[in-house]
């Protein structure tokens, strides 16, 4: 599958993979890669880097919003092959190592198989490596507070709930928020579009995910780049409020 690439601001691209997005932040030919899709998205990840004038060798770091298989599919490949450091929130580091796995179970998916879109999504997830064992061998916690010294200067924002260490990234100068799965604009198992939380079965801690909408409301920005769904243009604060209303 060829990745669908959208430039949303200078040096910022949202890439739609197979049901999951990743983000490329460029600075010259160097990039920061935020998430890496499913294991089956690897060729699309590499092609997307080439399409923005970069290469896997030029990836300064992989940043992980959270360590579900559809977001870390090529993280270990880049780390092992090119020596790329992989960073996550300290609470997500053991999850990325697969000291444990907090991901929707096959049993939970089967319980929800009657819901529209769940079966096609599940078939795609299985074919794309959604249940593969893809630990990151040496994930690293963020080195400090505030903006990271990486292309794009992203600022990590802890938004737990979907997973314990789920993290968004704020690019304040561009008015961009990379929201991972803490705030999305669509999903194959959702019957609505626009700002929303993922369906309940995907969250480790739904009350925590709802509480983390407070963090999104506090971020200045008018471009939301979610882990699933299209780019959302408009106040990020209002997007978080709308997601809260929909979840009520």
From TrEMBL:
<dbReference type="InterPro" id="IPR036866">
    <property type="entry name" value="RibonucZ/Hydroxyglut_hydro"/>
</dbReference>
<feature type="domain" description="Metallo-beta-lactamase">
    <location>
        <begin position="19"/>
        <end position="228"/>
    </location>
</feature>
<dbReference type="Pfam" id="PF00753">
    <property type="entry name" value="Lactamase_B"/>
</dbReference>
<protein>
    <submittedName>
        <fullName>MBL fold metallo-hydrolase</fullName>
    </submittedName>
</protein>
<dbReference type="InterPro" id="IPR050855">
    <property type="entry name" value="NDM-1-like"/>
</dbReference>
<dbReference type="InterPro" id="IPR001279">
    <property type="entry name" value="Metallo-B-lactamas"/>
</dbReference>
């Amino acid at each position: 599958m060829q990745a669908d690439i959208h430039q949303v601001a200078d040096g910022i691209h949202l890439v739609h993979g197979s049901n999951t997005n990743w983000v490329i932040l460029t600075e010259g030919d160097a990039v920061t890669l935020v998430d890496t899709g499913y294991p089956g998205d690897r060729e699309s990840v590499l092609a997307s880097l080439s399409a923005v004038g970069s290469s896997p060798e030029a990836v300064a770091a992989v940043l992980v919003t959270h360590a579900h298989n559809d977001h870390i599919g090529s993280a270990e490949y880049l780390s092992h092959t090119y020596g790329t450091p992989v960073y996550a929130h300290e609470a997500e580091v053991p999850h990325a190592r697969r000291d444990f796995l907090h991901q929707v179970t096959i049993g939970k998916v089967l319980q929800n198989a009657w819901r529209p879109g769940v079966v096609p999504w599940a078939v795609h997830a299985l074919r794309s490596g959604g249940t593969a064992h893809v630990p990151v061998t040496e994930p690293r916690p963020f080195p400090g507070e505030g903006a990271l010294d990486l292309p794009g200067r992203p600022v990590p924002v802890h938004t737990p709930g979907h997973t314990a260490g789920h993290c968004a990234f704020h690019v304040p100068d561009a008015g961009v928020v990379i929201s991972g799965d803490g705030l999305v604009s669509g999903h194959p198992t959702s019957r609505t579009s626009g700002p929303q939380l993922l369906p309940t079965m995907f969250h480790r801690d739904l009350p925590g995910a709802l509480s983390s909408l407070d963090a999104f409301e506090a971020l200045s920005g008018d471009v939301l780049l979610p882990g699933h769904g299209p780019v959302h243009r408009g106040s990020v604060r209002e997007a978080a409020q709308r997601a809260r209303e929909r979840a009520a």
